[in-house]
Amino acid sequence: DTGAAQFVPEGKDWAALRSAAAGCRGCDLYRDASQTVFGEGPVPAKLMMVGECPGDREDTEGHVFVGPAGRLLDKALDAAGIDRAKTYLTNAVKHFRFVERGKRRIHQTPRRGEVVACFPWLREEIRVVEPRLVVVLGAVAAKAVLGPSFKLTEHRGEVLEHDGLRVGVTVHPSSVVRAEDFRESFDAFVADLVAVQKAVA
Ligand code: URA
Ligand code: SF4
C-alpha cells in the first residue's frame, strides 16, 4: 500500500500499463472496488481530460465516464465542439471510493494520500499519450496535476504551464449535474472548455 510506483512497469506502452494497473495495490481502494478503471481513448491524443475517480457505473463496467457525469460531459463536449472519440479520458484515481448505504454505493472524494499513491499511473498516461493539453476536471484532478495548494476557483477557464505541460482548468461535470442553477453552470462549463481547447486548436 505504498503507492502505485512499485506496480508501474518502466517505459512500457499503453496496453502494458493498462494490464499492469489492473493488478495495482498501491493504496487501499482496490480492496472494495470491483476493478481498476484505466484511462481510454486514442494514443497519442492532442487532448487529455482528467476526472476524479470512477463512479458506481464506471466501477461496474470498467470504463471511464459512462455514468451520469459522463452523460453530462458528453453534452458539454458536444456543445463545445470537442470530439470525445479524439480525446483521451482518464481519472486522477483509478479505483472507485465509496461507502455503502443499504444497497446503494455512495461516491466519496478520494483522499490526498490516494491521489498521491495513484499519480504514477497518470504520469505514465501523460508520457504515452503525449497530449498538447491536459484538461483537469475539478479540484481533485487539478491538485493531482498542479499541487495540493492549487485553487480551482481562481483559475477556471485558464491554461497554465506546469512542468512542461499545458494544463487547462475547469470544474468537474458532477458539480454541474448537482448545480441548483443548472443552465448557468452548464453554460459556464462549456465556456471553460471552449476557452481552454483554443490551446490545441
Ligand atoms: N467521475 C469521474 O471523475 N470519472 C469518471 O470516470 C466518472 C465519474
Ligand atoms: Fe492503485 Fe490507484 Fe487503485 Fe490505489 S486507486 S490501488 S494506487 S490503481
TrEMBL record:
Residues 38-194 form the Uracil-DNA glycosylase-like domain. The keyword 4Fe-4S applies. Keywords: 4Fe-4S, DNA damage, DNA repair, Hydrolase, Iron, Iron-sulfur, Metal-binding. The keyword Disulfide bond does not apply. GO terms for molecular function: 4 iron, 4 sulfur cluster binding; deaminated base DNA N-glycosylase activity; metal ion binding. One of its GO terms (biological process) is DNA repair. InterPro entries: UDG_Type-4/5 (IPR051536), Ura-DNA_glyco_family4 (IPR005273), Uracil-DNA_glycosylase-like (IPR005122), Uracil-DNA_glycosylase-like_sf (IPR036895). Belongs to the uracil-DNA glycosylase (UDG) superfamily. Type 4 (UDGa) family. PANTHER family: TYPE-4 URACIL-DNA GLYCOSYLASE (PTHR33693:SF9), TYPE-5 URACIL-DNA GLYCOSYLASE (PTHR33693). This is Type-4 uracil-DNA glycosylase. It comes from Lentzea albida. The lineage of its organism: Bacteria, Bacillati, Actinomycetota, Actinomycetes, Pseudonocardiales.
